[in-house]
Amino acid sequence: MKKLLLILALIGTVLSCTDDDISTDPELSGNFYLTDISCFCGFNPEIDFKDFKLQFSSTNNSFTLINPTEDYFYIGSSGTYNYELDDTILKVEGAASYIYSFEGNKLTLTLLDDPMVADDELVLTYQKE
Description:
By secondary structure, the chain is mainly beta. The chain has a domain at 42-129. Helices cover 12% and strands 40% of the residues. The chain contains one helix and eight strands, in the order αββββββββ. An eight-stranded antiparallel barrel has the order 1-2-3-4-5-6-7-8. The radius of gyration is 20 Å and the shape is globular. Residues 1-10 and 12-19 have low confidence and may be disordered. This is Lipocalin-like domain-containing protein. It comes from Gillisia lutea.
C-alpha cells in the first residue's frame, strides 16, 4: 500500500511539472522614456515624449505603461501588461507584438505590422533612465 501511494505521489509530481521556461532578457528591466516615434500617425508637435514611459519588471515579464494623455497611445492605454519573449519578438498580452532591439541604452520597438495594411508601420524608440 505504501509503495502504491509513493508511486501515485511520484506520478502526480511528474505530471504537475511543466516545461514553462519563461524567456527573460535582463536588458528589459528598469524604466524607459519615449524619445522618438516613426509612424503614419499624427501627434501634437508640442507633446513631450519623455512623459510616455515603460517600467519593465523582467522578474515576472510585465511592464507598466504610462501615457500622459489618452489622446495618444502607441502600445496601449496606461496600465500594466504581461509579455512573452520569443527571440527578438516581444508579444504584449492582449495587444500587438514588436521586434525589440537594444543599441546601448536605447530600446527600439518595431510593430509587427499586418502586410495587408499599408499605414500601420510604427517604430518607438525609448531611452533607459
